[in-house]
Amino acid sequence: MRIAIINEHWGAGAARCARDLQTQLMARHDVEFFPREQRETVASLMQRLIEYDPEVVNCHSFYGFLPYAALAEISSRFPTCFTVHDPRPIGTMEMACWTCDRNDTCLRCPLIPGRLGKVFKNPYLWKRMEKRRTHQRCSPDMVVVAPSEWMANRLREQELKRFKVRTVRNGIDATLFSPCESDRRKFGLPLDVPVILHSAWRAGDWEINHRKGLMHLSEAFVKHVLPRFPHAVLAVAGESIAPNHPNVKPLGIINQEQLPSLLGSVDVFVTSTLADNLPYTILEAMGCAKAVIASRVGGIPEQVVDGETGLLVEAGNIFELGHAIIQQFSDPERTRLYGLAGRERVKKLFGIKQFVGGYEDIFIQLATSRSRPVSDFRPH
Q1: What's the mean pLDDT in 240-262?
Q2: What contacts 65, CB < 8 A, 6 or more positions away?
Q3: Handedness of CA 284, 287, 291, 294 (dihedral sign)
Q4: Is residue 245 classed as helix, strand or coil in its secondary structure?
Q5: How far apart (Å, rounded) are the C-alpha atoms in residues 327 and 325?
Q6: Which of 43, 69, 286, 307 is packed most tightly, with the most Cβ within 10 A?
Q7: Are 302 and 150 in contact (CB under 8 A)?
Q8: Distance of CA 205 to the CA centre of its chain
Q9: For the chain, what is the mean pLDDT?
Q10: What would the DSSP string read from start to end of 190-236?
């Protein structure tokens, strides 16, 4: 089967998902990754797709470099699976859009002040209306995939419910992400002290990924954890800017090959994200048998079982986050058991085979359910 996967060129979770899918499927199918160039137009991309003639197209997080309307063009010409990793199809990447229950109109947007402003000065409203029109133009047999039940339910509350909405959880290779012996010297971490790891996608050279909540974690660490464990260390991977504190250790970007070794060298993995879907970082930590402390947002409760594989806390609650870290440091045996339970959960629910198999089933159904008509699309 010929499969085209479309995803913008950047390194966050959506790209990871798309590349893992491509790598795994290439053993059984002909898979091409698009765009082949950094800059594409709808016309140039469609021309390349027509030349490749895929039996199925999987649109991942493509709408950062292409007009959203490309989804309608692609699904009209090819059997299409559309993966939704974030709220942009029903809103924007603004923090409020991750949890907003009013994406149907955006007329009560909390980001826009004043009644008249919500209509006449509301850029979100007009973008949302354009997306609704695009969804109306998409082929009715398009399948929408969400990595979590949380996201799937959000999509079913909007006009995307006219399509078949499926949940295919992100998955990792549990043989790659498996328990490793501690090697703290390799990462410049001190021996015999409690170490927390925070890892998040790098927003930019001089930026911090505010959505991932590092500032909340660092405040909880300094105000609550250090008074109890004065030699503890907060290791920060990925983020370009780390808080300026002697006990905070910036690690820079850590590649996937080094991650298991890094995770094996820390005591607890913490993600204090304010909004999220189904983070790979949590799955990687669980695969490496590390207890996880995470915010109770998005699809994270589908990953972390509170009191069984780790602890869930209210997003942005500094005291609760600090107390959870202290709990884990104070009871190493319970922390170890949380980690072991987390690894078993990953192997059962979030393995690479389940992930790829879920997509492969959808692709096969799409490829066999529609006879592909000759498109009237004419590249400009």
Answers
A1: 89
A2: 8, 9, 35, 38, 39, 40
A3: positive
A4: coil
A5: 5
A6: 286
A7: yes
A8: 21
A9: 90
A10: PTTS-EEEEE-----TT---GGGTHHHHHHHIIIIIHHHSTT-EEEE
